Amino acid sequence: MEQLPYQREAFYRRERKSIPAARAFTAWALRDWRATERLDDALLCVSELATNALLHGVPPGRGFRLHIGMCAEDGVIRIEVEDSGDGRVAVNEPRPEAESGRGLLLVAALADKWGTGARDPGKSVWCEFERGAQ
Could you tell me the pTM of the whole model? Predict the structure, then answer.
């Protein structure tokens, strides 16, 4: 996917205030690119992916990296969160009374595509949004 000049990245520490900061960064990038058709979906997915990285993928003293790109040819927006923790990404069906465990289900429902990738160390979780699709 050709992303130049439409790419942004930021690093966030392992702290709660990183989640709203990642959302604000994403909103700024998509507004800068005039790509706000799926802004609410993208922001919710950033929240979920960043929260998962923070809770399950970032060892103490480390952080996560957020990449946002938009393909110049077709306008597809790709959001990727990288962490340095081990572990596998799994979508589980939470019990109805559970207070958590629905993040990746939301990402799967809102994004047009999503997936995972390996890093050394760690992993990445990404999602894509086609502009105008809903």
Answer: 0.86
